[in-house]
Amino acid sequence: MSKPQMIQTDLDSVLTAQEIAEIDAELGHVPYKSGAAIDALKIVQAKRGWVSDECLQAIARRLEMSAEELEGVATFYNLIYRRPVGEKVILFCDSVSCWICGCDDIKEKISAALGVDYGETTADNQYTLLPVPCLGACDRAPVMMVGDDLVTHIDEAQVKALFGDAKTGGDQ
Q1: Model-level pTM?
Q2: What is the pLDDT of residues 99-109, one digit of tens each?
């Protein structure tokens, strides 16, 4: 019996008091605890940059969900990061509109400048490059988000201006 209590105590200590308070505040806005799943994941991610397995389990327990159910929610939304990411996440749109406007060539230039491919983080932990199916700015394709900034009509000059030769510590 003491082993399950030990596990429970370990899970309880994973989340900070502030994270627990913020999650509990969200629970007041939903009829079912599972309705706060996305907000709870976003709260933890905002503090830590990503959601670890331990945090996911602790959140699931707090929301009275299985870890598998919460994992399904977390992996459905592409803005919940289940692995560590760089200081700035580059969400690169690879939708049909961006593809028609040459996003494949632009992506290759970004990869060359940063020395990473999709799903990878630069050695200095500055950037993580991730594909997304749409950023909702098809009329300004190709587009990407760099951190919180939307970059539109991306061309080679913009890539150089934004990233320089970041993989070798050049201008940024």
Answers
A1: 0.79
A2: 999 999 999 99
